[in-house]
Design goal:
With 291 residues, chain A is an alpha/beta fold. Chain A is built from 13 helices and eight strands. The chains are: A alpha/beta (291), B alpha/beta (190).
C-alpha cells in the first residue's frame, strides 16, 4: 500500500513536468498565477525575499490562508513545512494539500533529522544541492526533488551550481562499473539500491525541478537546458513590475526553452525585474539548511 | 507510422517511450510550425488542462489542432487530454478543442489524496492496470460514443470515431494495451 501511494505521488510530479510552479501569498495572486499558466501554486504567507527581509523564525503558513488559496484555484496547491517538523506536515496533510515542500526556506525545526516521509499519504518535494542530498531525501520518501538554489535572492547562480553538480554526479555514477557502485553509494551517503537505479537509468528515480533565484524567462530556460524537468518561481514573479506578463512569459519559456527566437520575443518589455541581491551579499544562507 | 505528441506541458515523454517500445516513430509538437509536419496520429498527454489549453490558444495552435481532429486525425487524449477534447466540462466554465461529444468532470476524485490505481476491463481486451492522478471522469457520453471502460460505475475510457480518451494514464504503467489499441485505430480507421 505504501509503495502504491509512493507511485501515485511520484506520478503527480510527472504530470507537473514542463511546467512552472509559482509562489503565491493570496487567493488573488493564486488566480493570477493560474491564469498565467502555472501548473501548480505554492501557498505561503511570505515569499522568500520577504522572509529574508523580515528575519526571525519563519514557520508553516496559517491553514486558513492555505485553504483560501485551495478554494481559489483548480490546479494543485503545495505548501511548505519546516525541515523535520512532523506536526506541521500532519496539519498540511489534514487539509489535503497536494504536495508538501519540506523546505529550507523556513527555519528548520530539527537540525539533524528530516521527516520520515514514507509515513505520509501526501507527497513531499525536498530541496537538494547534489546527488547525495537528493537520494537521501528520496530514501526518506520524497516523491519529487528540486534544487535548493538560494531562495529570495533573484540570483540564479546557486540553482545553476546545484543542477550542474547533480547532473555531473548522475553522469559519473552512470559511467562506473557495477563493482564500483558499492563504494560510490558509501561516498554519497545513500543506499546502494538508489545508486544502482541512477547507474542504470541515468536519472533520479523521481522528477527533478529547478528552484531558487529564477527571475526571468531566460533564467527558466537556462535551468531547463541544464536538465531541469520544470521550474519553481518564488519571489521572481510578484516582486516584479508586471507579474501577469512575467509569469506568462516564464511559462512559455519553459515549453520552448530550446527556441532562442521565441525566448527573445518573450523577454521583451516585461517591465522591471525583481531587484535581487547577490548571493555573496546575504548573511542568511538557506541552502546550508538540511543535508 | 509517425505520431505527433503535444509537448506543451505534462507527461509527454512517457508516451514517447511507450510508443517507441511499440515501434512507432514520434515527435514533439511545441509550436505552430510543428503542426505542418506530416503525421498519422496525435497524442494529447496528461498534465494540467488549464496550462495546455492556454498554451494551445496563445501559441496559435488551437484552431489547427481542432480542424485536424475534425478532419479525421486519430487522436488519443489521457487525463488532461480527455478534458481538452471534451465538448463540456461540468464543473469548469472553460472548454478547449470541444471535438468529442462527452461531458467531463474535472478533478472528479478530489485532490491528490483521492488519486488511486485500479484494475478494470478495457473494451474487449481484458483487464488492465489504471492509474488515476487527480483524474477526471466522463459523466455523459453522446450518441456515437463507445464506452470502453468503467470504474466504480463511472466512465473512464471512451472512443468516438477517430478519438480515444482515457481518464487514467496507461503511459505510467508497463501495460501497452491502450497504446496498441490506438496504433490499431491509426492502421484501421473507422
Amino acid at each position: 500500500m505504501i509503495n502504491e501511494r509512493f507511485e501515485l505521488n511520484k506520478n503527480l510530479a510527472q504530470m507537473l513536468k514542463g511546467g512552472v510552479i509559482m509562489d503565491v501569498t493570496t487567493p488573488e495572486q493564486a488566480k493570477i498565477a493560474e491564469a498565467a499558466g502555472a501548473c501548480a501554486v505554492m501557498a505561503l504567507e511570505r515569499i522568500p525575499a520577504d522572509i529574508r527581509a523580515a528575519g526571525g523564525v519563519s514557520r508553516m503558513s496559517d491553514p486558513k490562508m492555505i485553504k483560501g488559496i485551495q478554494d481559489a484555484v483548480s490546479i494543485p496547491v503545495m505548501a511548505k513545512c519546516r525541515i523535520g517538523h512532523i506536526a506541521e506536515a500532519r496539519i498540511l496533510e489534514a487539509i489535503e494539500i497536494d504536495y508538501i515542500d519540506e523546505s529550507e526556506v523556513l527555519s528548520p525545526a530539527d537540525d539533524k533529522y528530516h521527516i520520515d516521509k514514507t509515513a505520509f499519504k501526501v507527497p513531499f518535494v525536498c530541496g537538494a544541492r547534489d546527488l547525495g542530498e537528493a537520494l537521501r531525501r528520496i530514501n526518506e520518501g520524497a516523491a519529487m526533488i528540486r534544487t535548493k538554489g538560494e531562495p529570495g535572492t533573484g540570483d540564479v547562480v546557486q540553482a545553476v551550481r546545484h543542477m550542474r553538480i547533480m547532473q555531473t554526479e548522475i553522469r559519473r555514477l552512470g559511467s562506473l562499473s557495477p563493482d564500483e557502485l558499492f563504494d560510490a553509494a558509501k561516498d554519497l551517503g545513500v543506499p546502494y539500491e538508489l545508486a544502482l537505479y541512477v547507474h542504470e537509468n541515468k536519472k533520479l528515480p523521481v522528477v527533478n525541478f529547478a528552484a531558487g533565484g529564477v527571475a526571468t524567462p531566460a533564467d527558466a530556460a537556462l535551468m531547463m537546458m541544464l536538465g531541469a524537468e520544470g521550474v519553481f518561481v518564488g519571489s521572481g514573479i510578484f516582486k516584479s513590475g508586471n507579474p501577469e506578463k512575467r509569469a506568462s512569459a516564464i511559462v512559455k519559456a519553459v515549453t520552448n526553452f530550446e527556441d532562442a527566437a521565441v525566448l527573445a520575443e518573450l523577454s521583451e518589455d516585461l517591465g522591471e525585474a525583481m531587484v535581487g541581491i547577490n548571493a555573496q551579499e546575504i548573511e542568511l544562507i538557506m541552502e546550508e539548511r538540511g543535508k | 507510422m509517425k505520431i505527433g505528441i503535444l509537448a506543451l506541458q505534462g507527461a509527454f515523454a512517457e508516451h514517447e517511450k511507450m510508443l517507441g517500445s511499440l515501434g512507432a516513430e514520434t515527435f514533439e509538437i511545441r509550436q505552430k510550425h510543428d503542426l505542418s509536419r506530416r503525421f498519422d496520429g496525435l497524442i494529447i498527454p496528461g498534465g494540467e488542462s488549464t496550462v495546455q489549453g492556454k498554451l494551445l490558444a496563445e501559441l496559435g495552435m488551437l484552431d489547427d489542432v481542432k480542424a485536424a481532429i475534425e478532419s479525421g486525425l486519430p487522436t488519443f487524449g489521457t487525463c488532461a487530454g480527455l478534458l481538452l477534447m471534451a465538448k463540456k466540462i461540468e464543473n469548469d466554465s472553460r472548454a478547449y478543442l470541444k471535438t468529442m461529444d462527452i461531458t467531463a468532470v474535472r478533478n472528479a476524485y478530489g485532490r491528490q489524496l483521492g488519486s488511486f490505481s485500479a484494475v478494470a476491463a478495457f473494451g474487449s481486451l481484458g483487464d488492465i492496470p489504471m492509474t488515476f492522478i487527480r483524474a477526471p471522469y466522463i459523466s455523459e457520453a453522446g450518441e456515437g460514443v463507445e464506452i470502453l471502460s468503467e470504474v466504480g460505475g463511472r466512465i473512464v475510457a471512451a472512443r468516438q470515431k477517430n478519438m480515444l480518451a482515457a481518464a487514467f494514464h496507461p503511459e505510467l504503467t508497463d501495460n501497452t494495451t491502450v497504446h496498441r489499441y490506438f496504433i490499431d485505430m491509426i492502421k484501421n480507421p473507422r
